[in-house]
Every structure is written in C-alpha cells, then in structure tokens.
Amino acid sequence: MTFTNKAASEMRERINQSIKCDGVTVGTFHSIGARILRKYIKNLNKRYSSSFTIYDGSDQKLILKDIIEELDLGNYKEFNPNFLRAKIDSFKNASMSVKDVQSEAKGFENEKIAEIYKLYLEKLIQNNAVDFNDLILLPIQLFKKNKSLLKSYQNLWKYILVDEFQDTNSPQFQLISFLAGGHKNITVVGDDDQSIYGWRGANIDNILTNFKDTFPKAVEIKLEKNYRSTQRILDGAWSVVSNNTNRAEKKLVATKGQGEKISLIPTGNDKEEALAVADSIKKDIKINKSTFQDFAILYRTNAQSRIIEQILMREGLPYSIVGGTKFYDRKEIKNVLAYLILICNRNDNVALKRIINFPVRGIGEKTIKLLNDSANKKKISLFESLQFAKELKLRNKQCDAILNFYHSINKFHDLLEKLDCKELFRVILEEFNIEYYYKNNPVEQDRYNNIQELKSSIDYFAETSGAGLREFLQEVALYTDLDDWNNKQNSITLMTIHAAKGLEFPTVFITGLEQGLFPLMRIDDSSDQFEEERRLFYVALTRAMEKAYLLNAHYRRRFGSQNTSSFVQSDFLNEINEDSLKIKKYKSVYTKRIVSSVNGKTMRVARTVTEFDDFSVGDMVQHNLFGVGTIIVLNGSGENQKVGIEFKDGLKKKLIVKYANLKRID
Description:
By secondary structure, the chain is an alpha/beta fold. The chain is built from 26 helices and 21 strands. The relative contact order is 0.09.
C-alpha cells in the first residue's frame, strides 16, 4: 500500500521483475479501499450500489452549495463551500461521526456546521456517491460491523507492506491495523524526518509510537546509507532537523563522498534573489555544461513563484512548474485579470462570462443564455445587453446584480486614463469585493496571497515603466505566449517544497529563508507545527544530489507592499552546521541611460554587471591541468575576475575565473 498511483505502478513493475508473483495486490490506500467497497458497500447501506461515484473536491463543493441554499445560509459569509469542505475533511481525518461533531458543537456557527455535515453525508447516500475520505472510513466501518469479512481479507492478504508510512493519518493506520491484526505479518517503511503533511491529517505518532504499541513484537531496522546526496548536504539537513524533540535518532551516511559545501546567498530584495538564482544557473551551465533539467527552484508558498518566473522569462531560461499552475494561469489570477481585460475591452465575451458570476451574484448559465439571446436579437454585444436586464424574466435581485455590474465596469472604463494602474487596481479589488472573498476564508489563504502578489507585480510594472493597465495586460499576454516554447524535457523545475517530496535534482535552490516565510509561522502556531517546518526544510535540502543553494532577501514584497523593517534570518540558518555552509556574496549593478524615441526621451534601466565574490586571497583551489594551488592575488570580481595562483613547485599562473574552471578546496 502506498499513496500515489505512480509509486504503486513502480512497485508493481519492480515486483514483477524480481519475483514474478502474479498474486500480489499493489495499490494506493484509496484504490484498495474502493476495491473493498465495490464488493461490499451494500452491507453498510442498502441504498448504495457497487456502481457508486467517487466525488472529487469540485463535486463536494457543488453538494455543499445546494445545502447552503436549502438551509438559507447564503447570506452568512462564513458558510462558504471551500471552508465547509475543509471542515468536513478534518472531521473525517479525525474519524469523527456526526454525533461526535454534534456533541462538541457550541454556538450558532458550530451547530450549523454539524447540521451541514449530517446533510452532506445524507446527500452522498442519496446520490450513490462517496468522497475520497470514505474510501478509507467505510471499509473500517465494514470491518467493525462484519468480523467474518475482516477475517476473509486477513486470509487473502497474509503479508502487508506499507510505503511512506510517515504520511498516514489515523483512519489509514486503523485500516492497516485491522488488516494485519490477525497474522501480524506487516512491514512499514518510512522516515519520520519527512513527515510534512500534518496540515492535512498525517499523524507522525503512527511511525514514532503507534506502530510499536499496536505491534509490540515488531523489529526496527534503520536504513542509514544514503545513495542520493553528498555528505555535506546530509550533515546540513541533519543539523537542522536534529533540533526536533519528536523524532527517532538516526544519522545518514552518504555513498557519494563529502561533496561541495552548501552555498548561502543573502540578497537585497526578492528580485535580486531571483536574479541570483538565474545567474547561478547560467554560470553553472557555462562552466560545468549542465542542462536546464539539472536545476530545481523550491519555495515555501506559491506566491513566491511570480518574481522568479518573471526573471527566468526575462533571462531566456525555460522552466516548468510541478504540482501547480503558472502564476498568471492560476484561477484566482485569471479571474482578477478578466476584470481588467473587460474594463479595457468591453467586447471581450470570454472575460465577461468568466466574471459575471464571480464573486457569486446569482447569475447562472440560464441567465447568461437569456442575455446572449437578447444581444443577438438586438445585434449588440453581450456586455451591452446587460443594460436591458429588466426586459428579461428575471428576479429583481438578479436584475439589480446585473445592472450594478454593468455600471461598475463602465465607471472603471472611464477611469482608465484618469487613475494610474496601481490606484485603479486597488479600487477595482475593493469595488467588486474580490479581496474580501479570499481574505476571510482560511482555506483560501494561498489564493489571497497570490492576489497580493499580483498587486506587487502591477506596482513594480507601474514604478519601472510608467505605463498603464493596457500595457500591463499586453505584457502578461506576451508572458503566456512564451510558455509554449518551453521544452519540458529540458527545463528548470519550479515547485513548492511539498510538491518536491520524492524527487531529486543535481542542483537545488531553496528560496525565502526568512523568519515568517520559511519557517512559515503564525502567532498561534504550536511547537509541533514548527517541528514540521524543520522537517520541511530537511526534505527541501535532501532533494539535492550534488549542490544546494540557500537564499533569502532582506527586503521582500509581500501582501502587496515592501516589507522593509522586519527582516529576520530564518532560524534554520542559525541552526545549520557551519562546517557544511559557505556564504557567497552577490549583487547586481544597474546603469541608467536616457534614450530618444518618437514619443520623446525616456529613462532606461539595464543590468550591466553581476558579481559573485567566489574567491578570496589565500583560498586553496584545484585546477584540472596545474593541480592544487593557492590564490595570491585577485583583480576584479564575478566571472570576469582574474586570479594569480601559485601551484606546487612554485609555478605561478594568471587565470580568468570563467575559463579556468577552478574549484575551491575546503
């Protein structure tokens, strides 16, 4: 049993290659749960059939929307489908029944949530449907109810192996405990230092204590030989995670030798941080003949990718995003951009249809069809047809919503030339209640952060170009047009650290190592959550096979403003073993020049010099031809730096850094 279809497929392939055993059942927790339910779900409730549907998140939210309408809770902003879905998932991950939730419910909001939970479960049965949590919970209910059925599965699966055991939640642990409870032939494989999914219900105690308590005769085998990373990377990661109190002690030994020290690059701001990453990649490709696919850039939150993507595009470096969508392709960003597009071009029907009911105004597909028919009849645009909403057979509330939307878009269209794009964008967010829609929903914090990052992007564009909203939209359109030329087989990988788990790259960049960002901590966070952040850093660093770079920014645009006063270096940088770390100084130099055009004179800013202060007088270095030597003189900086080196036997040479391929000997 494992967690992903990819991992299950690889296991099945390896088993077939090694032992040729046709009778082995290999699958994810959810696929094995579904297999059991297809045969026996009727034993739980006669209204179910074996053809039940498995609902995903969007299906769940549609049911919850119906329930909100039934209970007449539409006017209560706290009862939104995303929030309610997260609450229900948390109930199920904690194996809480409706009675459990009802017994703990105090106050109007919690009592209504309990009522919604009960109705939600009832509607699943009505629709002959289960959600993903049910694929674990319902087999448990089956086994509790029918001991002979449990016995038959214990006889069928006499030996059980569980991979990535540190990621199991309480119901998953209960399921495997049932299946192995008779014969106790069970092996689990996992690493408590890589338990990073507590926020979605994973219980680290399953691997640390619960397994031994449930199976007291279990034998523990430590796998401490590491085939991926160098010793310095492992030592750096261990020196941080070993500060956790809730862990099993172990120390990994690399088969690949010591390797290079981990590089720490402090930068002035988030743009410089992204430039340092891009320049490091270009330098490595030039000197070591690396390929784009050798590099991964990791970040704690999705919002951090915006400036990195922007710089990679500008520098002509191909990239792809794993486990996420490119910044300007994300749903919440597309929704906001659709407002800007419609304000600039009121004939854009695609933009209009995207946002006419976002945030929710009670305007559905039937209403849009009526408006479309009216537009065709009057031979006007769909947008212009909105002003005639009262001629259609619509409820007063719908008519008011359509007319208010129509007048607001026209108002902002008239303001296009009167307000700068920074001010205009903020007024639009406020007028259409977009920020509030995301800000007050804890489940939507990542999307709210992305809206703030878009605000930063528009601010930066306005400050550096002096242009307006139309020009910004054109620049964004050109960004998305460039996506097609990226060769996904040979591109730099961008992803959150959570998405990187299980992957490996020759060189890894970990960005945003500032207190409050990574570790990402809030005022009410517990010590357990901080320990999970440490484990997340351990996972990030151990994705690197040969080289690792840690970066932070003294000033960072966050939540739509420049954070200039509260920079604190990440605790992880205070904890990391100094012997594993080297500091690389970096700066970009800009020049300004006035250029003439048909529209007059404008100021252009260009980046002319990049400096990596890699070497110092007295450094011991290795040269492929001349061997080991000592730097006795330096001239210049960065990759154009010239060095004077005295090698063994008194041989002295003057070399240019970017051609010499020198390696420092630590």
